[in-house]
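Q&A log
Question type: sequence-to-structure
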Amino acid sequence: MPVRRLDPILVDRIAAGEVVERPASAVKELVENALDAGARRIDIALKEGGRRLIRVIDDGEGMTPDDLALAVDRHATSKLPDGDLSNIATLGFRGEALPSIGSVARLDIITRRAQADHASHLRVDFGQKAPVAPSAGAQGTKVEVGDLFLATPARLKFLKTDRSEAQAVADVVKRLAMAHPRVRFALSGDNLSGFDYVDCGTGEEGRLARISQVLGGDFTPNALAVKAEREGFRLSGFAGLPTFHRANALNQYLYVNGRPVRDKVLSGAVRAAYMDYLPSDRHPSLALFLVCDPHMVDVNVHPAKAEVRFRDPGLVRGLIIGALKQTLAEAMHRASTTGGARTIETMARSWQRPASQNAQWNWRASPAAPGFGEQAQASFVADVAPPQADMRAHETLPQLDALEAPLGAARAQLHDTYIIAQTRDGVVIVDQHAAHERLVYEKLKKQREEKGIARQMLLIPAIVEMDEGDVDRLLAQAGELEASGLSIESFGPGAVAVREVPAILAKADPERLVRDVAETLAEHGSATSLAKGLDHVLATMACHHSVRAGRRLTGDEMNALLREMEATPGSGQCNHGRPTYVELKLADVEKLFGRR
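Response status: OK
Response body:
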């Protein structure tokens, strides 16, 4: 077949696919244009998930008739005043938004500048541009996109359900709203739960208020402020406590110069920073804003402007990891407030007896029933399991300063596993094994960083027989393991000799310790991944060789554990990301008993 030049409108429709993939793509472009125009209020409305109609109204500066006529032409923009592609300081530039939308939909634009006598109207029907005409309209711009992709059925059939498309639009608007707390955003339409984010003001408080509007009210009490600066890059925002984690990364919002991005460098840095606190299948909630000179980043490498390319990605990665790690370390023992709320909810549900059970309740069998004889009482007491609370910590009243401490004063130990502490305004329940596991882990890390982990030589080397594959992995990483305080050497086929162990684990079973480490090495595989995961080796040691559940502690030991938790970074969660304690506020407990 001969080569021929395609029709210009068909060329536009093909090019539009790079920018407008779905209704959410169109909404993103239109809202970014409104923000670049200085809008303080943006209203978005949808019909059929944006397939039938997208309406975006803003109160920005608007356009003149001449600007409006040019705005729907290819490669016409107001976003590059000097033509420098490396100096993009706006959100909207890629040069293809309005003409791309107009080539695959019915596009109506009504716009008016503040000084103009009237508004101007322009219509583009699937690439066919009509003349600009006078119209009635308020200051700002109203854009309506109708019958999206009607002229390109191949793309239309790849759209998901109206609900899915509407949810994608909501996500786009939320990401843009988070970066602009002073702008009011309203979203409405079918197949979605709309929202109206009011102006939150300026400064750190305004930003946190807007983030909480998007992520929910629970984020505020569980957020840590992040601030760092290095070589022209400035990082700010809020990161959630490690125990305030989620099953996916949807609650991670990352921005570069106010532009929402999904960047591998940034998301990888976040994972690396939280790696010491969360299991691999859990994700933190956060909103981070990176600001730099536009020349330091290329925002024009992706048609949808979702990705960026940094001139020095290593610098950016190091900045984010360092800032987040320092912020999390400074949080010390803090754990998420949602743990106590979930505990209260669980208790409340367990106390709500179904009506059918109430109907079967035999009051005559109750120990509180009149005439419940001594013989019945004796039988009742004999059938009940013995108490599982060690009250030795309650023998003396807690000191006033202990009650004022964040984790309070120990009052009892339940089931030789949970420490009950009293604070000035509540109750703290501590998982003694999870807490001590974290404490041992942090001590090992600190020793390694400062002067190397102190080692204890065994009087008689422990010989451990195991699978030859495990032996090979252990011997291949013998140098790294020695830096972690574990000294081993070959002892013939299928065995290793353990000569030294970390001093802090001197009482641990060497054989069990080595087998645990071998499992960790098998999980991490190569030396490269081990180098990234040496902390996992220490975590393994700490997990299996700390104070176990089932060990009875004295009152002094319990209080000492509480004080050490308060002074140890990251002690709010164990090495697996689970909380080490929950706090119940006295007011919440009183509600359970109808006192409030």
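Response note: Confidence is low (pLDDT under 50) at residues 372-385, 526-531.
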